[in-house]
Every structure is written in structure tokens, then in C-alpha cells.
Inverse folding.
């Protein structure tokens, strides 16, 4: 039973479980996952591709690019405060075999639970306008960089970790976690620079 059914606030692991429930049929598309999480729920739609790009699926050619574009699209529309998410048709139709995605999503349960254990309601002002524009902008930049760094091993995963931490902090109203994620972005730049 999900957090929604239980009537309690959703946590990162609940977002992962909701994603699992969207995996139906032989192939799973971006649209199916987005519709399951809700097109007005921007932050979960940042968390899922960010966590996915850290999973073994990051080795699939083009997968990091799709995740990066999705992260960028969600971030920019979140910054614009659009009431619902719009995605281009080709991105909605992007898909992978459901079995492979399901295995990756199950792998994400452990890191999601770890994030849930460290989140608290702290420095909430950083997760609300006007200050939230900073972490949202950081997620946008990370998303835009992922397609450009597709051929550089592990760089997209490093950026995915940053986005996952920042997005979880925003979702759970934990400004301190958001701050750690933003500081981690500086370390990520060093790792990527070394990889290049």
C-alpha cells in the first residue's frame, strides 16, 4: 500500500514505488511514468530521472540524454510556475523494456530509503519562492549538461546524484539537504573536470 493510500506524506521511497506501479506492459514510456506521478507534481518528476541516471540504466546509450532533457524541461517549467507539465511528443514516447526499467527501479529503493532517513523539515525557506529559484536553476543546469556529457563515463551519474539530493530536499522541505546538494554541485564540477 502506498503513502497516498495510507494518507501520510509521501517520501522518496514512495516515489520509487509509484514509479514501479507505472511499469506496465512490455515497454514503459516516459509518459506513463509522468502520468502516474502527476503532471502537476514537479519535484517527484525531478527525483525519478535523477535517481534513474544513477542506476545501471545509465549505461544504456541515449538514456542519460533523455533523463537530462526531462530534468531540464521539468526544472524550467517549475521555475516558470506552470500549473501542469508539458513535454514534447518524442520525449513522452521514449521508452525502454519494462523488465529492465523495473530492475533498475527496484535497485533505487535502497538509496531512496537512505535519503528518507536523513531528511527533516529544516531551513524550509530555501524550498519556497523566491529562494527556491536557486536549487531549481541548479537542476536545470545539471539537466542541460547531461546530454553534452553523454560520452564521458559516470559524469551524468554524478550530476544525477546532485539533482536527486536537491530534489529530495525540496520535496521534503529540507532546506539543509538542498544546501548540501548545492554544495555537492561544486564537488561534482571537480569530478567532471577531472573525467574530461
Amino acid at each position: 500500500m502506498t503513502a497516498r493510500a495510507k494518507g501520510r506524506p509521501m517520501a522518496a521511497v514512495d516515489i520509487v514505488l509509484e514509479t514501479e506501479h507505472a511499469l506496465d506492459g512490455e515497454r514503459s514510456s516516459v509518459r506513463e511514468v509522468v502520468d502516474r506521478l502527476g503532471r502537476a507534481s514537479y519535484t517527484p518528476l525531478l527525483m525519478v530521472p535523477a535517481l534513474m541516471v544513477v542506476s545501471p540504466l545509465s549505461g544504456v546509450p541515449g538514456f542519460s540524454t533523455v533523463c537530462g532533457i526531462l530534468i531540464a524541461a521539468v526544472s524550467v517549467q517549475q521555475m516558470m510556475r506552470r500549473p501542469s507539465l508539458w513535454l514534447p511528443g518524442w520525449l513522452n514516447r521514449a521508452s525502454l523494456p519494462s523488465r529492465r526499467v523495473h530492475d533498475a527501479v527496484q535497485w533505487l529503493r535502497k538509496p531512496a530509503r537512505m535519503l528518507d532517513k536523513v531528511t527533516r523539515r529544516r531551513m524550509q525557506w530555501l524550498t519556497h519562492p523566491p529562494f527556491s529559484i536557486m536549487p531549481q536553476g541548479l537542476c536545470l543546469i545539471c539537466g542541460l549538461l547531461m546530454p553534452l556529457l553523454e560520452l564521458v563515463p559516470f559524469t551524468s551519474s554524478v550530476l544525477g546524484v546532485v539533482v536527486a539530493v536537491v530534489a529530495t530536499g525540496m520535496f521534503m522541505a529540507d532546506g539543509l539537504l538542498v544546501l548540501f546538494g548545492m554544495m555537492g554541485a561544486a564537488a561534482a564540477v571537480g569530478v567532471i573536470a577531472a573525467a574530461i
Remarks:
- Residues 1-7 have pLDDT under 50 and may be disordered.
- DSSP finds eleven helices and two strands in the chain.
- Residues 175-195 form the longest helix (21 residues).
- The radius of gyration is 15 Å.
